[in-house]
Design a protein that fits this description.
mainly beta; 10-stranded antiparallel β-sheet; 10 strands; 74% strand
Length: 138
């Protein structure tokens, strides 16, 4: 059963020794069970008009799909590197994505999803990323 939820996203990333972050809270949808669920929400800010779907499978794989003006699909699977398409205002990139950690304690009432991953382009790491997504009932 799909239900409306409050989604809080804390995003931290490090590039070239500089750390930057963002925190946002928005309304979204939740559907599924502890290890297999879907979170979806509409972006705001720079990416307004885009929608994001996070599909969590087996508690260790997150497929992040953004649709709209800047389409992206990142597969974040613990211990596995994937090549993924990433669309930006400057153009499309093919990035390597390697997840160091994916942890989820989600239930039908909400919970937390945390993951750490690197993005690489060519032979070098572009950024190290850490996300915490907290879901509560609306």
């Amino acid at each position: 059963m799909e239900k409306e939820v409050v989604i809080k996203i804390v995003d931290r990333h490090e590039m070239d020794g500089d750390t930057d972050g963002l925190e946002t809270t928005l309304l979204g949808k939740f559907k599924g069970t502890r290890d297999n669920y879907i979170l979806s929400y509409a972006e705001n800010g720079e990416l307004e008009g885009c929608s994001v779907t996070l599909r969590v499978e087996n508690g260790d794989t997150v497929t992040m799909t953004r649709s709209g003006m800047f389409e992206t699909e990142l597969i974040i699977q613990r211990g596995v590197r994937h090549n993924c398409s990433y669309s930006t205002p400057a153009g499309n990139l093919l990035l390597g994505v390697f997840a160091k950690r994916v942890e989820s304690d989600m239930t039908e009432k909400g919970g937390r999803l945390e993951f750490e991953y690197t993005l690489d382009l060519g032979a070098g790491v572009v950024s190290e990323n850490y996300l915490v997504i907290t879901v509560t009932e609306a």
